[in-house]
Amino acid sequence: MAVIFEDSVKRDITKKELAPVYLLFGDDTFLKKHYCDSISALTADKDDIFNFQRFEGGSSLQDVYDAVTQLPMMSDKKCVILSDCDYEHLGKGDFDKLTSLLSDSVPSTVFIVVFDNIEFDYKKNSKAKKLISAAEKGGGKAVCLDHRKPAELVKMMSDGALKRGCKMDSATSRYLIETAGQDMSTLKNELDKLCLYSNGKEITKQTVDLVSVKTIEASVYNLTREIIACRADAALNIIDELFFMRIEPMIILHTVSSSYVDMYRIYAAKAVGSNISDVSKQFGYRGREFVLERAAANLRKLDFNKLMLSFNALLDADKRLKSVSADARTVLEQLCIRLIYIISKGESVD
Fold first, then answer.
1. Helix, strand, coil: what percent of the chain each, to 5?
2. What is the pLDDT of residues 243-269, one digit of tens each?
């Protein structure tokens, strides 16, 4: 079972040497749409009703089978796309028909199966593995399109700003990614907004704060940042904003706790002579290494004792939030003050 990645499918498109079957999956919606459109555009025009057909997940697989096996009309090739087929819940007959479509590929048809909203776990799911094996048998390719690495996204944002007549340095591009997340559709929209707002001027971190949307993780990260910096007023203001956004208190606590877990992992790694790269591989931070770099920077203000006291405060807040009588906002505000006191004084306060 071989899975390829973005570089390989990009090479196919550049050389105009397409496989008869493509399985497209992964966590980046933008990339899946981009490569689905790029592959299909080399095969048939979207307005060609004879040679371009698209089916959604609930479609009859017999209809899909008929479309794939029919010869193209006044063309060498035709394209058939099947989107979000719920392969896990197909009956045996339909699943066998799908695997047959993949393994018995038709030379005159490029068949694209794309999973947008249906999870496709090619490492653990046995049916997903069978589909990949069937595609390979038919000369096809299984393409995993996950979020690009942060360094690639940074370059893409900086280059994209230049193309739009603005300037955005690497540090600001990185900040935008940390703020808005790594989904390329979201980043492209945010970059368009920033460039329109900046109107040819340089895009700064202040511009990003003013214009861009923030993920929940990024919003709560700002809370953690103010706690680490011991800025109580700013931390309490962010809690006010998060409650205004109606973010669940347990989500706020979980995200703050995750930042401390990141710091502890870095602390433990340093204690045994390991580095950020080792932690990333061990705990699955692939593509999110900046989280560990941020944790390493935050860790400069904490030692082992402060970390343990902080974990006790977080655990106490968790217990109180799960209590029926506790006021969630009061619990989180008190947690902020306790965490700041621990960082500044090295001891806990009740």
1. 60, 10, 30
2. 988 889 999 999 899 999 999 999 999
